[in-house]
Each structure stands twice: as C-alpha cells, then as structure tokens.
Amino acid sequence: MPAREISRLLFTRVYPLYLQKAERKGRTREELDTVICWLTGYSRDQLARHTREAIDFQAFFDQAPRIHPHSSRITGVVCGVRVEDIQDPLTQKVRYLDKLVDELAKGRALDKILRP
Question: Which of these, 19, 25, 46, 104, is most buried using a 10 Å CB contact count?
C-alpha cells in the first residue's frame, strides 16, 4: 500500500481490528495497549482518546510523544515486505505496529515483543 494511502487510514478504524486479532488469540486489550504505548510513547489515556476520536495514521504518529528508540529492532515480514527495509518513515512505523500486533497474536511474550 503506498505511503499516501496508509497516511489516510484511520487509526480509529484499524484499532478495533488489532483488538479483534489479539482477542481471537487469547490476548487482552491491556496487552495490545501496552504494545502500542511502548512503540509510540502515548499514555493509556492518550491512546484511549485516539481510539475514540477520528485520527488518521499520519496524525497518530505525528502526535506521538516519541517513537521508542528500540523500534529499529523490530524486524520481519509484514504483507510480504521486510519492515526494516521500508524507506518511507510513516509506512515503516505503521508496519512496525502491524508486526508487534502480529507477534502479540502469535503468543509471543510481552517482554520479547517490547525489545529490551
């Protein structure tokens, strides 16, 4: 998906899909929120607000307090593309988030997902 299309996707609409994926695999909203807050630096209250108000991925990441300094340790394939090779910064951040949610849904331990 081109960067321009990803930037217009509403985080508000994607979050419930992330939650469904996690819950189908026995994970909780709290665990999902932990992963998202780790990546973005949002507090739980800030994240909760973004799950209720319409915000696209561009604004979601632009407003993020900080992208975790260890996010570059997120590697692997999402949608057939290695996340570490993505050149567009926004697309890479969205795919980092996708990868973390995938790892959560696959049962990986939180301490491993959060890359110390």
Answer: 104
